[in-house]
Structure formats: structure tokens, C-alpha cells
Amino acid sequence: MLVSKKIGDPERDHFQGILDGFYAIALTFLTLDLPNQIQDLLERQLSLPRSSVSVEVIVMLFFLSHIFIFVILFEIMCLHKAIIKINPNTLFVVRLTVVVMALISLAPVLIHVINHLRQQIVFLGETPALLRQLGPLRRFLWGDLSAIYLVLLIMNKFSLRDHGGCGMPEAEQKSRRAIHRVLAVRCSFTLFYLYCVTVDNAIARFHPLLGFLVLVLIVFTENGLGSLLRFGRFALSRILGRVS
User: Fold this and answer.
1) Whole-angstrom Cα distance, residue 238 to residue 244?
2) pLDDT tens digit string along 213-231?
3) 54 φ/ψ sector (left φ>0, alpha ψ -120 to 50, else beta)
4) What is the C-alpha to C-alpha distance for residues 45 and 34, in angstroms, rounded to an integer?
5) 160-171 pLDDT, tens digit each
6) DSSP string of 67-84, one letter each residue
7) CA 54 to CA 51: how far, in whole Å?
8) Measured distance CA(68)–CA(42) in Å, rounded
9) Residue 11 gets which letter from DSSP?
């Protein structure tokens, strides 16, 4: 980036390879941290033999949290790669990509610390000291997700403005606008939930996984609802055909 005047803009294939490697490492770190969290959970439960906390429920919540975060980061990777694919690798795109990668690198760290604090809350109760530590971390996590979507939205928006659709294939224009709509929905929701976590209202206190669950539902209902409905109609027609 600092020597772009000497070596020019990066090749598109090389840039895609860097993104693939970075996201693969980020998702791998997120997965490798899960066994350590489960082991810590079991050790804490053994140290409290009379604890009424159900380990099965807590482990299930940890798995759900991991799946939700994995799906969200995977979709961010797909959106980021789609923007890079249909946009030229200008210095502006490269700089914003560096910002997105830096923000994504914070997510596994924040998730690890938040899960560790949640373990303590489960076994020790919601003490004021633990809640004071958890609150800023939740705000940082949702602020991090909001910033990622916002930077990707800016990256795609400025590309739309700069090109204006002139001399661009119709399919490419539709792809740009579709990505813009998807990012706008994600960014709006994450900013809304960041506000809920900041003011600590009833929505933020309802359940720790509520925000991630809603975001994952947005991902699947927006991108896969049509396929799911078609599969449901097909399965229903086959069942009714056999019954008749």
C-alpha cells in the first residue's frame, strides 16, 4: 500500500488469495478456541459439585454462539470477496480492505474474553463487578461488527458513485446494488443492537445470544428463504402424492 506508486495496484488474483488466507485463519482461530472454552467450563463445573447449573445447556449455548459467529463471519467474507471481485483494486479499496481485516481480527479475541466472563457469571452469578466488565466488551463487539459492515458499505457505495454505471454490464450493476442493499440491512441492525447494548435496555438484557440469532436469521431468510420454500413445496407434494 505504501509503495503503490512504484509497484502499481495489486493483481486481482493475488488480492483474492490474500483474502482467502486471512479469513481462513480467522475462522480457524475461532474454531480452535472452542475446545479450550469447553474444557474450562467442565473444570469449573467439577470444582462446584453441588452446582445446579446444567452443563449440557451451557455447552449447547456455547456451540450455538460459535455457530452464529461462524455464520456471520463467513457471510462477511463472501460479501467482502464479492465487492473485491466486481470492483477494481484501486488504492481506496485496498485501504478499506486493510481496515476491514483489522476489525475482523478483533472479533475472535472479543468473543473469547466475553465467553470467559459468561462462564464466571453462570457459576458465580451476575455480580456487579462481572457485569461492569461484560458491558464494555459487548459494546466493543457490536461496535466492531457495525464498523465492519459500515466500511464494506462505504467501499461498495463509493464504487457505485465513482462509476455511475456507465459502460458497466447490467448484471454487474445489479450485483453492486444487491450487495449494497444487503450491507445496508446488516449495518442498520448492528447499529440498532449496538444502541440497545449501550443503553442496556430490555432487548439487550433478554438473552445474550438474541442479537446473533436475529442476525443469522436475517442472513438465512434473505439469502435462502426462496430455496427453503421451494424445497418445502417439493417435499409436501411428494408426501401428498404418496398419501393419495
Assistant:
1) 10
2) 888 877 777 655 555 556 5
3) beta
4) 17
5) 555 544 556 666
6) HHHHHHHHHHHHHHHHHH
7) 8
8) 22
9) P
